[in-house]
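Action item from last week, closing it out:
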Amino acid sequence: MAELAVVARRYMASYALFNQALADRLGLHPTDLQCLNLLTLEPGPVTTGRIAELTGLTTGSATRLVDRLERAGYVVRERDAGDRRVVLVAPVPERTAEVARVWERVGGGWFALFADLDDRELALFVEHMRRTTEYGAEQAARLRAGEPASGGGRYGGSAGRVRAGGIVRGGVSFQGYS
């Protein structure tokens, strides 16, 4: 568990730094890049309220994020055909294709990292990513609500409990954090 905690911290830091570098390359803020990523996973255009839900931002912050993406040419605002009062945000396909091309150049080798794994091993990675995504979203919501992050939620247990100088079943002590 201690090795897993260290590797997970390095993984998260590495991904955050990669995301920053990719965002810099595209002239975007890292949060804006990830919002664009989430928008491309939605089945169609969404409201700014939905963007706030996806990102955990306030609606005001989500509106400013959409403003930045619109100025950069990555999204457009359009009226909902069913209710003209509703404004939807849609990714611009040509611009998201540009992002995909940059990703392919710098991150395209990512799939090769898993090419030698069988379906059972791949399923383990998929489940890990689903769990950590859900757990991270729960903890981010707690932090935004002013609550302390904890090991609660679906996975419960003592995953978030920390004792001085060490790890308790996956919880990470930030004492001596380096």
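Closing note: The chain has six helices and two strands.
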